[in-house]
Specification:
Layout: E1 3-7, H1 18-27, E2 32-35, H2 44-54, E3 57-58, E4 61-68, E5 73-80, H3 87-112, H4 120-125, H5 135-142, H6 150-160, E6 173-174, H7 175-184, E7 188-191, H8 194-197, H9 203-207, E8 213-217, H10 223-236, E9 239-242, H11 265-269
Parallel strand pairs: 1-2, 2-3, 4-6, 7-8, 8-9
Antiparallel strand pairs: 4-5, 5-7
Length: about 270
């Protein structure tokens, strides 16, 4: 059993189709995979069908863009193996997706005002399968440089960070509402890459309302992060997960299946496993 429980596709801000991701998964010897596209389950039906075609078990997944309002910081929540209708998740996330789409189109307008070529028809033509345009799609139109290059990162920061013309962000979902929605839809709630977003202080509070696990294995995590996760899962009776956070050319180059977890408690609990 080899699992990658954190991959993205063109249903959100990944560069590759579900089929393209699965082809790479098969080549990497992955047996279980979860597409955790941001704030949407729109690709689930296609993923399940193609998973059967490729002989890879697809576990329903989502990554909810949430916020810890007490500490004033972002936090991402992974949801797994929820019911197919995902009624509570959809109700919570749909307004966020609409806000994101409007915000990105507004960002494109602000970038055009700087003199960079980025017309609205180009932007709308980039809308992927999920129907929501992301700033990664704007960057794809603005530069052919690879994500990890200094030129790409400098352009990104100049536009979207540090008071750049397209800086600013949307209002995110309260993290407690995100965990509750996942649980109400019969799923497992997991804190994503706590080392990346410094989410550790929040975990005891979420454990009280049903948090199930913590993403231990992630490209951004260090040995210190692993130790902190291990301490928390032991104290609160949680399980661990792992994944590559694969985005194709829209993210840091990673190998799918490289960041797997030896803890298979989630896989053993899923009805799709």
């Amino acid at each position: 059993m080899k699992a990658d429980l954190h991959v993205h596709s063109r249903y959100s801000d990944g560069a590759d189709t579900i089929r393209e991701v699965l082809e790479q998964a098969v080549a990497a010897g992955i047996t279980h995979i979860s597409f955790v596209d941001h704030d949407t389950t729109a690709g689930l039906e296609e993923a399940l069908a193609l998973g059967r075609e490729y002989g890879v078990t697809v576990i329903p997944g989502i990554e909810i863009s949430a916020y810890d309002f007490r500490r004033n910081r972002k936090v991402h929540v992974l949801g797994y193996d929820y019911r197919s209708d995902a009624r509570h998740i959809h109700a919570l996330c749909r307004p966020l997706l609409e806000r994101r789409h409007r915000h990105t189109l507004a960002q494109a307008g602000k970038i055009r005002e700087t003199g960079l070529r980025l017309d609205e028809e180009q932007v709308l033509a980039m809308v992927p399968e999920g129907g929501i345009v992301y700033k990664q799609h704007l960057m794809d139109l603005l530069t052919a440089q690879p994500f990890e290059s200094a030129d790409y990162q400098q352009l990104y920061r100049s536009l979207f960070k540090d008071g750049g013309p397209a800086s600013g962000d949307i209002r995110y979902i309260d993290v407690f509402d995100a965990v509750r929605a996942i649980k109400e839809d019969g799923g497992f709630a997991v804190i994503a890459h706590p080392g990346q977003l410094d989410s550790y202080e929040l975990i005891p509070e979420l454990a009280e309302i049903g948090l199930d696990g913590i993403e231990r294995h992630h490209p951004d995590h260090t040995a210190e992060d692993h130790e902190r996760v291990d301490g928390l899962v032991a104290e609160y009776g949680l399980f661990t997960t792992g994944g590559s956070d694969y985005h194709g050319r829209y993210g840091t180059p990673v190998n799918m299946g490289e960041f797997t977890s030896p803890d298979n408690a989630l896989l053993m609990s899923c009805k799709y496993s």
